[in-house]
């Protein structure tokens, strides 16, 4: 049976664990607020970029379109690149695990279908988990610096590398796997195709160019514009993915740490009860010894 | 008569400006253009330079953009740029340090992709310097007269 001293030591240790987890929860909560704000303020750019791209691609498709590998693909569907966005750190519940599981499943599905798979990992956790099985297939990694969340520089860095790989012919299709931030408790593992750029505009016939009530003039011309818009739009998509992922990470960590703090609290209650009982039992035992000793005289 | 239009300047991380102006002069890559209400719909690339906002015939704000796109419709003018700085907040030291770091990166660049990016940074820094000079000389001129 545990002695009083052991119990005391355990209580102290669980208490300090609770201090750490509740501090982490607070930090995650404040970062979450900031991450949500950032994601919120990044939305106008992404939505306008998407609108512009939609307009351009439909208008070009209407003319029979040119040859834009970023828009229409390489014509092949052989090598898939998975852009896996995880956190650099753990202690955030199922956040990293669910992403890695999704990436593995997707990879297996593609391999079974006779396709090739490559990875690009954002965040240390994803790289650590995937390198065992797929070391040779990981084309690159990126870690966000600092703890204030991803910056646009991070996104451009990732986008530049991916675009360079694409131009190099290293893959045909790029899909991002990341956590979409629904709320602090729910994150949804999402797959989005990045390259070739999937526009919401369907077949050109289904969506007349004049739909918005405006036929645009283009300066210098549609093709020059499109060539510039496409990389920027991929950057902006990666950026919003990173932001979503960061907000999700903070949400997941907050929930996980909240649970951990609560568990620690329960445990402290139980241990304290046991401590008090043991102490009482000891006192009673001593009393009985004294009384029976006195009676024996 | 609709005299004012909504001008928006959007960066990847935030909406920098959203206000009603009479005219916005945007540095298009084929030349500056002024956008006023009821302008014909236009999509244009934007080179690094100054976006000037006019109200009542006077410039109310000047912003430096690092290049991107502009979308103009009858009611709206939206500029998408990766970077935007209010020129009234720029100091000479900022300009100099930026030019310096762009130069350094250009020197350190090893492969061609890196070189191209550094070159672009350099172009932006040069444009910022030019924009800064224009604004300060105009301000000085206004004081002198």
UniProtKB/TrEMBL annotation, chain A:
Main location: membrane
Top-level taxon: Bacteria
One Pfam family cited in the UniProt record for this chain: ATP-synt
SUPFAM superfamilies: ATP synthase (F1-ATPase), gamma subunit
Keyword Cell membrane applies: yes
Gene3D superfamilies attached to this UniProt entry: 3.40.1380.10, ATP synthase, gamma subunit, helix hairpin domain (1.10.287.80)
Subcellular location: Cell membrane; Membrane
Function: Produces ATP from ADP in the presence of a proton gradient across the membrane. The gamma chain is believed to be important in regulating ATPase activity and the flow of protons through the CF(0) complex.
Stored PANTHER family: ATP SYNTHASE GAMMA CHAIN (PTHR11693), ATP SYNTHASE SUBUNIT GAMMA, MITOCHONDRIAL (PTHR11693:SF22)
Quaternary organization: F-type ATPases have 2 components, CF(1) - the catalytic core - and CF(0) - the membrane proton channel. CF(1) has five subunits: alpha(3), beta(3), gamma(1), delta(1), epsilon(1). CF(0) has three main subunits: a, b and c.
Name the record gives this protein: ATP synthase gamma chain
Organism from which the protein derives: Phaeovibrio sulfidiphilus
UniProtKB/TrEMBL annotation, chain B:
Protein family according to the UniProt entry: Belongs to the ATPase epsilon chain family.
Membrane topology: Peripheral membrane protein
Subunit structure: F-type ATPases have 2 components, CF(1) - the catalytic core - and CF(0) - the membrane proton channel. CF(1) has five subunits: alpha(3), beta(3), gamma(1), delta(1), epsilon(1). CF(0) has three main subunits: a, b and c.
MF-aspect GO terms: ATP binding; proton-transporting ATP synthase activity, rotational mechanism
Known role: Produces ATP from ADP in the presence of a proton gradient across the membrane.
InterPro entries: ATP_synth_F1_dsu/esu (IPR001469), ATP_synth_F1_dsu/esu_N (IPR020546), ATPsynth_dsu/esu_N (IPR036771)
NCBIfam families: ATP_synt_epsi (TIGR01216)
Pfam families xrefs: ATP-synt_DE_N (PF02823)
UniProt-annotated location(s): Cell membrane; Endomembrane system
Ion transport recorded as keyword: yes
SUPFAM superfamilies: Epsilon subunit of F1F0-ATP synthase N-terminal domain
Protein name (database record): ATP synthase epsilon chain
Main location: membrane
Annotated transmembrane regions: none
Keyword ATP-binding: no
Annotated HAMAP family: ATP_synth_epsil_bac
GO CC term (a single one): plasma membrane
Keywords of the record: ATP synthesis, Cell membrane, CF(1), Hydrogen ion transport, Ion transport, Membrane, Transport
Annotated PANTHER family: ATP SYNTHASE DELTA/EPSILON CHAIN, ATP SYNTHASE EPSILON CHAIN, CHLOROPLASTIC
Domain ATP synthase F1 complex delta/epsilon subunit N-terminal residue range list: 5-84
